[in-house]
Write a structure and sequence with these properties.
It contains 11 helices and 16 strands. The strands form 3 sheets. Strands 3, 5, 6, 7, 8, 15 and 16 form a 7-stranded mixed beta sheet that branches.
């Protein structure tokens, strides 16, 4: 089979590999739709997880099952499936302890394009198929379904980490595709004011549609000053960090009330340290928490989030701004994520039969 791979840090290209073999609890799938991610960019061009040689990229896919192992109960060849970007080993001690995303070690639930070949190929392997696949709801838009791999569950995990509850005033820092889904999640969980921090008009317009009450444009002034002004100097109850860089946490700490929570789902792909301002952290005693987490993955989460789409509670298909056709166009789609033109939110690649 062919696949689009990270050849080494800073280099990508097409490779030929054997079709992966199927273990007794596993599945082999072929892609129906694929979506490149900013994480792929960090992996290749920033070397965020170290060097990888000829590793097939990609972790966002909708697939069709072509083979299952002898112990797989709920899926069969021909089934169209949602595929989570995070595929834990559900019989692990870490999963039993409530942290499936770290099964086998920190971040080890993230297997595609990290520890094994990803989904940008003619075929890909899914471990623990009964736990990590979900049936594609009939009639679901493939773009919306592809967003269920990572953008929706990661964005929603930001709201979970920040423990958004009804009536909270919330800031969502970064309104790319993950941040936009965080806005939607905060609205569903009952947030009152939602300050969406971003500058690209297509993103901020969609943030308003998804539930943001105010747009904070960092190009028009310091976001700390803007949010403190809008909250009469009080700051916000909760913050979801879905964009920015290592220094974003210093700004977040300045606008967070004592007792507040920062939920981070932004992949910090560069740098060694995250600076936290001592005074704004209450000299270490301000009861200001930072919770950073990789989304859990798994079938149950995919099924629950899919229900929000089928009941028209969320519309992740609106994230798709650029559509390509054919596996060969994974490369230009990925380059869009690298170059980030102003009209981009998320590209999608449909695999035409």
């Amino acid at each position: 089979m062919k696949g689009f791979a990270m050849l080494k840090i800073g280099a990508t290209g097409w490779v030929e590999k054997d079709i992966p073999s199927c273990g007794p609890m596993d599945a082999i799938c072929k892609p129906l739709a694929l979506a490149p991610c900013t994480s792929d960019i960090h992996t290749v061009w920033a070397g965020a997880i170290g060097d990888r040689k000829d590793m097939i990229l990609g972790h966002e896919a909708v697939g069709e099952v072509v083979e299952v192992g002898a112990l797989v109960k709920d899926f069969k060849p021909g089934d169209k499936v949602l595929v989570s970007a995070i595929t834990p080993d559900w019989n692990s001690l870490e999963a039993q302890g409530g942290y499936p995303m770290h099964s086998g070690g920190m971040l080890s639930g993230w297997k595609f394009s990290n520890f094994k070949d990803g989904v940008f190929a003619e075929y890909f392997h899914v471990n623990d198929a009964d736990g990590n696949l979900a049936h594609l709801p009939e009639g679901m838009d493939l773009g919306a379904a592809a967003m269920l791999a990572d953008m929706v569950p990661t964005g929603f995990h930001g709201a979970e980490l920040a423990d958004i509850s009804f009536g909270d005033n919330v800031a969502v820092i970064g309104v790319g595709p993950v941040g936009l889904m965080s806005v939607a999640a905060c609205a569903i969980r009952g947030a009152a004011e939602i300050f969406a921090v971003g500058s690209r008009k297509n993103c901020t317009d969609l943030a308003r549609e998804f539930g943001a009450t105010d747009i904070i444009n960092y190009r028009e002034g310091d976001i700390v000053e803007q949010i403190l002004d809008k909250t009469h100097g009080k700051g916000v109850d909760k913050i979801v960090v879905a964009g920015g860089d290592n220094n974003t946490f210093a700004q977040a700490m300045q606008i967070l009330k004592p007792g507040g929570i920062i939920g981070n789902v932004n992949y910090l792909g560069e740098g060694e340290f995250v600076p936290i301002p001592r005074v704004e952290w209450g000299c270490g005693m301000g009861h200001k928490q930072i919770r950073g987490g990789l989304m859990p993955g798994g079938r149950l989460r995919s099924e629950k989030l899919a229900r929000l789409i089928t009941t028209n509670r969320i519309h992740p298909e609106k994230l798709i701004t650029h559509t390509f056709h054919g596996l060969e166009n994974v490369e230009p789609a990925l380059m869009l994520m690298k170059d980030k033109p102003r009209d981009l939110i998320k590209p999608l690649v449909l695999i035409d039969k």
